[in-house]
Design a protein that fits this description.
By secondary structure, the protein is of the alpha+beta class. It has 2 domains: 187 residues, Vaccinia Virus protein VP39 (Rossmann fold, 3-Layer(aba) Sandwich), CATH 3.40.50; 91 residues, Lipocalin (Beta Barrel), CATH 2.40.128. It is built from 5 helices and 15 strands. Strands 8-9-10-11-12-13-14-15 form an 8-stranded antiparallel β-barrel. Strands 3-2-1-4-5-7-6 form a 7-stranded mixed sheet, covered by helices on one side. Helix 5 links the parallel strand 4 and strand 5. The radius of gyration is 23 Å and the shape is elongated. It starts with 19 loop residues before the first helix and ends with a strand. It binds S-adenosylmethionine (SAM).
């Protein structure tokens, strides 16, 4: 069953704390309460942030999101808007990953660095003081977010240009028409959403050796792509009387699951590992390519 993007409930579509005036007054009030030069800095929930306030992801959702992203020791996790550093710290502490948090507020970034030190993870976790719209996070294999849908939408073009297979998780907020590949709900009801950056395979492909058709079947397909979904019609220019075959597919990174009905009217579901130039059967990668890109 397709997963629907969580929608911000209508009543909350302009939550009161997003009103710039109220947010400013609230943050002034909070910083006045917080200001005690003799005490070490401690962030306050809902305190003002450059593009969004600070609100920590709950501990169970941190783990549920990192689990859903299948974080491994080999991963480089970037938390965009790192707050107190908890996501970056857990990615390193629980999963052994290398992690980087980017936080705009210098005091909060310093607080996160102290938390990294307390956890003894200085060799695994770096906190950068910077703006997520200016810092380079292109080396991430996993990106974590707890921002706003509008900010996710602003990041979306950058995320979609990242290496296919890069995993993205977001607390509560979606990516518009780029629907999640998976979602998880923490015991407190908060939702984490998960996407895998798809390969870009839109365009013309020459297809041969497609299972379910005669060996010499060669055809051409012009694939349309909308995020992780592709569709098109396979035509056989060498065999003009043959009917066109509708194909539909879904990408999870560079793995394409393709569905079509073969010449015996049997449904076929096949997986291919794809790149910019060719598709190979995923379970027999040494086999000859089934598809090669044609100039568009
Ligand atoms: C909702 S909090 C999430 C904190 C943390 N990622 C978590 O899930 O616990 C968003 C954080 O983004 C920071 N932030 C807001 N705009 C930013 C920007 N342009 N660049 C970097 N950090 C930003 C805020 O200061 C805040 O700490």
């Amino acid at each position: 069953m397709p997963i629907k993007t969580a929608q911000t409930p209508r009543l909350l579509s302009r939550p009161v704390f997003f009103s710039p005036l109220i947010a400013l007054l609230l943050s002034l009030l909070l910083s006045a309460c917080a200001h005690n030069p003799n005490e070490p800095y401690k962030p306050l929930q809902a305190q003002h942030g450059k593009d969004v306030m600070w609100m920590p992801t709950s501990d169970p959702l941190v783990l549920a999101m990192l689990d859903m992203a299948n974080v491994q020791a080999s991963d480089k996790v970037y938390d965009l808007g790192a707050g107190d550093g908890r996501i970056a710290i857990e990615a390193a502490r629980v999963y052994g990953a290398t992690a980087v948090g980017i936080e705009y507020n210098p005091k909060l970034a310093e607080f996160a660095r102290l938390n990294v030190e307390k956890a003894g993870l200085q060799n695994k976790v770096t906190i950068i003081t910077g703006d997520i719209f200016e810092e380079d996070f292109s080396s991430a294999t996993v990106v974590t977010l707890y921002l706003l849908e509008s900010l996710n939408m602003k990041l979306k073009p950058t995320l979609l240009k990242m290496k296919p297979g890069t995993r993205v998780v977001s607390n509560s907020f979606g990516m518009g028409l780029w629907i999640p590949d998976n979602a998880v709900q923490a015991p407190n009801g908060t939702i984490g959403m998960f996407w895998v950056v798809p390969s870009n395979i839109a365009g013309r492909w020459q297809i041969s050796r497609l299972p379910g058709f005669a060996d010499n079947t060669t055809g051409e397909i012009n694939l349309k792509q909308s995020f992780q979904f592709v569709d098109g019609e396979l035509s056989q220019p060498n065999n003009p009387k043959s009917p066109t075959i509708k194909v539909e597919g879904r990408l999870l990174g560079d793995v394409l699951t393709l569905k079509y009905t073969d010449s015996s009217n049997q449904p076929q579901t096949l997986t291919f590992t794809v790149d910019q130039t060719q598709w190979r059967p995923t379970n027999t990668p040494s086999a000859k390519p089934v598809a090669k890109r044609l100039p568009s």
